[in-house]
Amino acid sequence: MALGTSSQERIRPVTGTHVVRVQHEGIVTADAERSKDFYCRVLGFQVLPRPALSAGGYWLGTPGIFPQIHIIQSELVPPGPGAPISPRARHTCFEVADYDAMKATLEREGIKYIENTQPGGRIQMLCNDPDGNTLEFQPTTV
C-alpha cells in the first residue's frame, strides 16, 4: 500500500489504463446509404437502433458486440475513393474469425486489397471503403 493511503481509498489509474474497450468508430461519409450497404454486405453488420441525431447516418454492428461502426453523413470531407490503401494512415483494424473467408468476400465483391506480413509473421489485409477510409483485417487472436 502506498504511503498516505488507506485500504478504503481507490487507487486512481494512470492515464489510459481505465479504457475497457473500443465502443465504436465514427466514419465520415459523403453517402450514408452507400456506406451502410458496403459495411452490411461486406462485413455482415446489421443496422442497429440509433437516436434521432441531427446528422444523418447509421449505427452498424452486431447486437451486443463491440465495436460498432457509426456512419456519419457529414459535410466534412472523407479521404475519397482515390485514397491509397495504407497501414501508415488512419485506419480501423478488425480481427476476423476466418481470414480466408474475408479475403474471398473482398474478391467476390471486386474490392481491391493488399496483403502484408508484419515483422514477426502476422499477416494483414487492407482495403478501402467507398469513401477511401482504410480498413485492416487480421486473423483473430482469441
Q: What does this entry look like structurally?
A:
This protein is of the alpha/beta class and 142 residues long. The protein has helices at residues 32-43, 99-108, and strands spanning 24-29, 46-48, 57-62, 65-73, 91-96, 113-117, 123-128, 134-139. The strands form two sheets. Strands 1-4-3-2 form a four-stranded mixed β-sheet, with helices on one face. It has a four-stranded mixed β-sheet with strand order 5-8-7-6, with helices on one face. The protein is globular. The relative contact order is 0.19.
Write the layout of secondary structure elements.
Blueprint: E1 24-29, H1 32-43, E2 46-48, E3 57-62, E4 65-73, E5 91-96, H2 99-108, E6 113-117, E7 123-128, E8 134-139
Parallel strand pairs: 1-4, 5-8
Antiparallel strand pairs: 2-3, 3-4, 6-7, 7-8
What's the gist of this structure?
Helix content is 15%, strand content 33%. It has two helices and eight strands.
Assembly category:
single chain
Low-confidence stretches: none
State the end-to-end distance.
Answer: 34 Å
Number of helices: 2
Succession of helices and strands: EHEEEEHEEE
* Radius of gyration using CA atoms only: 19 Å
Total number of beta strands? 8
What spatial order of strands do you see in the largest sheet?
A: 1-4-3-2
